[in-house]
Structure formats: structure tokens, C-alpha cells
């Protein structure tokens, strides 16, 4: 190929270079923590309905045993990635990049893992491909971020950037593991750009389809890369072209330099948030504030009123309509409620502060929690608006019956680079997710293999993942 002329070629060149040179030790360590987090989330999700549906589906498809699907056995790589990506995103516990507001690891890591297992890649090659794929997802998302609007244009149009951008990032990771040259990687990007999809209407009116979006993106990424390796070609202008990825999804509202500037040299990867709580990310600062109040000894029975101040754009997700947010229809809906999550933080305490058992249907109907949630008024805050969407801040004020006021300001979310989770906390989250499903011993073995991923074979990690379920097929 000649000098770089298009964004797709620029991405392909950077990915090809990283596949040869590798990531720095610090970036590989970051990816290991993301793999640990994702696998724990996936194991916890294996107990839930969407996993059973997709597990049954890929069992029906069957095919060559190439890669491990968590809790289901071995399947063609694309099928394994479909299930594992579904698991990764099912509980809304996956990592988040701001301000693009997408979940980059949940498509890329399942696609990279399935491919790495299929081709017998080393642990370091897997980490390098996953890290680069995640980076590309974030950069594609940032190309669609409108600074003046203060939000993602993808989101404003009802599109799920996580899945749309995830298909392309997953495809690049797979192409790296397949040893593709720059020209073939460019075609992989061009093919994957035709495969990204996902709408967010399920967040408004119901349905479980959003939970499979990352699985489908992982499946699409593998399919696109394998098509390119088989000789199918994609347009070199697939990203910025007149009828390309960005024009089609965003019209003229995109910045291609967000994808290409400093790619492979300056990294967004370390700034991706790892979520401490299994709820919508917009609720997290309110949870943090409530947990601080709880730690300071607030008496819940003494609370007269609670005021939760948040950025204006967040209100439509966690506060409206008020009747549904103070009395969620289900545990899943409760995870998107500002009032309920504040009440859960003040009365719960599992996991790292709020955990899965706070979002069961039974807990969502708990009279004590609903009474407390009804005391929460959500309002817009200019102070929070000035920070959003680089953080999702919140200010929580409690007014007590005796006239006392308590206020907690959380301006930097827990789990991001300004308020990071330690490796020990990430390991604790992994065990909270995994131990109830596979047992402490199996979880310890699996965590050890993930954190030891390096230049050696990937097989010990795969064996530990398979052994954790003792070859049980949960979805058969």
C-alpha cells in the first residue's frame, strides 16, 4: 500500500504495527484487569435469561468446536463470541468510556478471546489485539461526540454506539490475531462497517434485545475479519466516505481526527471506567453519595427529604417519568432509577456497596425501599452540567426531621482514572460475581490465570474457564 490516504488505512496501519510491536507492559496490565472484570460479569450473567436464550440458540446451530462459550462448551468462534458478548453486557456491569458513553470491552474481548483460542495465540497477542480493538471502539465513539451538544450524536439518534462501533473494534482485534496484513485489515474494517447495528428503543419501552447487542457485534467482528481473510474486500473509505460509516450514522456531525490522531501512541484505554455497581452508570455518583452518608451514620428513619442533583441530560434516563422511577416495574428497571438506587445504597450494602441482589424483582418491590425512594427528588444542577459528560457527577442532600441538612458531593465517579478502583477491588468484584456461580476455588484459579496472561499459551486460562463449570452445559 502507498502512503495512508484514508482513516481505515490509518487504523489498519496502527493495528498492524501493534500486532508486531505489542502494547506496553502498563497497557497489557490494564487489559488484564478488563478481562478479569468482563469474565466475572459474564459468569454472573450466566444465571440469567438472555444467556439461556442465546445458549440454546448456538447449541441448535452447533458446528465445529473452536472456542469456549462460557458455561456452554465449545462452538464455532463466532457462536462462542455471540454468547460471551451477550453475557458481558447483560447485567449493565461492563466498563464504560466517557464522554462517548459506550461499553468498549464487551464486544472486543469476546471476539478476541474466541479467535485467540481458535488460532492458538499467546496470551500477550490476545491482550495486544483486545487492547487495540477497545481503543478503536472508543475513538469511533469519540468521533461521534458533539462538544456543543454535550452528548453522543449516536445516542441522540437512538443508536447504540456500543454495538455499532464495537463491531468494527472487534473486527480489528480479530484481524490482528489472524495475522492480517495492512491491506486485509483495511478490508476487514470496510466489511465490519457494514455490520454494526443497534437501536436503543428497548431502553424506553422494554425488551431484552439490548443485552445481545455486544454479542452480535462480537459475532459480526469475527465474521467480517474471516470474510476479509477469505478474499472479500471492503472500501478503503469505509469510515469517512460519502456513503461510509460516519456519514450513514451521523450525517455531517463527526470528527474523523478523533479516530486517527495519535492512534497507537496516545491511548484512551486507561481512562475507561470499570463499574463498581451493576446499574446504569448515570446512577453511580448518587450511589457513591448515599454510601458516604451511610458511612457517616445517617439514620434512614430520620430522613424527611432527599434531593439528588445531577446533570440535566441525565434526568430523562434516571428520573423520568417520576412515577416509574420511584416504583420501578422490575429489578432491571430499578437499575435505571436515581431514586431507587439512592434508597438501595442507604439500605443495602452488598458487593462494593450495591450489588445484584439489590436489583431483583422482589427487592424492587420492597416497601421500605420504595418509601425511601419516594422521598428522593431529582433536579438539574449547573455545577454538574459543567462537568458532564466527562464525569457523571451528583450532589445528594438529605433534610432530616430535626432540621439538619447533610450534603455529599461526588464530582468524579468511582472507577475512573480520577477515582479508580484498585486491582484488589477489581478482584473483589470478580469474586462477588463468580463465587456464587462456580465456587471460590474455581474462581481463584481462573483469576490467577487471567492476571498471569503473558507471552505463554492461552490454554491454561481456557482450561480454568472451562473447569470452573466442570464441563456443565448450563443452557442445554
Features:
alpha+beta, four-stranded mixed β-sheet, two-stranded antiparallel sheet, 8% strand, 476 residues, single chain, 2 domains
Fourth CATH level, the homologous superfamily of the largest domain: 2-methylcitrate dehydratase PrpD
Instruction: Kindly report the oligomeric state of this protein.
Output: single chain
Report strand order across the widest sheet: 6-5-7-8
Portion of residues in beta strands equals 5-15%
- What structural category do the secondary elements indicate? alpha+beta
Average pLDDT, rounded to a whole number, is 94
Overall geometry:
globular
Helix content: 40-55%
Low-confidence parts: none
Description:
The protein is an alpha+beta fold. The protein has 24 helices and eight strands. The protein has helices spanning 7-21, 25-45, 49-61, 77-90, 105-119, 123-143, 153-156, 161-177, 182-192, 201-205, 213-229, 245-250, 257-260, 284-295, 315-318, 322-326, 331-334, 338-347, 361-364, 367-373, 382-385, 423-438, 440-451, 459-468; strands at residues 67-69, 73-75, 145-146, 151-152, 303-310, 376-380, 394-400, 405-410. The chain has a four-stranded mixed beta sheet with strand order 6-5-7-8. α2 (25-45) packs across α6 (123-143) and α4 packs antiparallel against α5. The protein is globular. The model has no long low-confidence stretch (mean pLDDT 94).
Amino acid at each position: 500500500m502507498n502512503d495512508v490516504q484514508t482513516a481505515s488505512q490509518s487504523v489498519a496501519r496502527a493495528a498492524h504495527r501493534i500486532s508486531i510491536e505489542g502494547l506496553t507492559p502498563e497497557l497489557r496490565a490494564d487489559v488484564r484487569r478488563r478481562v478479569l472484570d468482563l469474565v466475572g460479569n459474564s459468569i454472573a450473567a450466566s444465571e440469567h435469561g438472555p444467556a439461556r436464550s442465546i445458549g440454546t440458540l448456538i447449541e441448535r446451530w452447533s458446528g465445529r468446536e473452536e472456542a469456549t462459550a462460557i458455561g456452554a462448551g465449545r462452538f464455532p468462534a463466532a457462536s462462542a463470541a455471540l454468547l460471551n458478548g451477550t453475557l458481558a453486557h447483560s447485567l449493565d456491569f461492563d466498563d464504560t468510556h466517557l464522554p462517548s458513553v459506550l461499553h468498549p470491552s464487551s464486544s472486543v474481548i469476546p471476539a478476541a478471546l474466541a479467535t485467540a483460542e481458535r488460532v492458538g495465540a499467546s496470551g500477550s497477542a490476545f491482550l495486544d489485539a483486545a487492547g487495540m480493538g477497545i481503543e478503536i471502539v472508543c475513538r469511533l465513539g469519540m468521533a461521534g461526540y458533539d462538544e456543543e451538544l454535550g452528548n453522543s450524536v449516536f445516542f441522540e439518534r437512538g443508536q447504540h454506539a456500543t454495538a455499532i462501533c464495537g463491531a468494527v473494534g472487534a473486527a480489528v482485534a480479530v484481524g490482528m490475531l489472524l495475522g492480517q496484513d495492512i491491506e486485509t485489515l483495511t478490508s476487514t474494517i470496510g466489511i465490519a462497517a457494514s455490520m454494526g447495528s443497534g437501536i436503543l428503543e428497548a431502553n424506553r419501552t422494554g425488551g431484552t434485545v439490548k443485552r445481545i447487542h455486544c454479542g452480535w457485534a462480537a459475532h459480526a467482528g469475527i465474521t467480517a475479519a474471516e470474510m476479509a481473510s477469505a478474499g472479500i474486500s471492503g472500501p478503503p473509505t469505509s469510515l469517512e466516505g460519502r456513503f461510509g460509516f460516519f456519514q450513514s450514522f451521523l450525517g455531517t456531525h463527526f470528527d474523523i481526527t478523533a479516530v486517527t490522531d495519535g492512534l497507537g501512541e496516545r491511548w484512551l484505554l486507561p481512562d475507561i471506567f470499570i463499574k463498581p455497581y451493576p446499574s446504569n452508570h448515570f446512577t453511580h455518583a448518587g450511589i457513591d453519595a448515599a454510601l458516604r452518608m451511610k458511612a457517616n451514620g445517617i439514620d434512614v428513619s430520620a430522613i424527611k427529604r432527599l434531593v439528588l442533583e445531577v446533570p440535566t441530560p441525565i434526568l430523562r434516563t434516571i428520573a423520568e417519568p417520576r412515577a416509574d422511577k420511584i416504583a420501578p416495574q422490575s429489578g432491571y428497571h430499578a437499575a435505571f432509577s436515581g431514586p431507587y438506587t439512592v434508597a438501595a445504597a442507604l439500605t443495602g450494602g452488598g458487593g462494593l456497596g450495591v450489588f445484584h441482589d439489590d436489583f431483583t424483582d422482589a427487592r424492587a418491590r420492597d416497601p421500605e425501599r420504595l418509601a425511601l425512594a419516594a422521598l428522593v427528588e431529582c433536579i438539574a444542577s449547573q455545577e454538574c452540567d459543567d462537568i458532564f459528560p466527562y464525569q457523571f457527577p451528583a450532589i445528594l442532600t438529605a433534610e432530616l426531621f430535626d432540621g439538619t441538612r447533610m450534603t455529599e458531593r461526588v464530582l468524579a465517579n468511582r472507577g475512573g482514572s480520577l477515582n479508580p478502583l484498585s486491582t484488589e477491588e477489581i478482584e473483589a468484584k470478580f469474586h462477588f460475581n463468580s463465587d456464587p456461580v462456580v465456587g471460590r476455588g474455581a474462581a481463584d484459579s481462573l483469576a490467577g490465570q487471567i492476571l498471569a496472561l503473558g507471552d505463554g499459551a492461552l490454554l491454561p486460562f481456557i482450561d480454568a474457564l472451562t473447569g470452573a463449570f466442570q464441563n456443565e452445559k448450563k443452557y442445554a
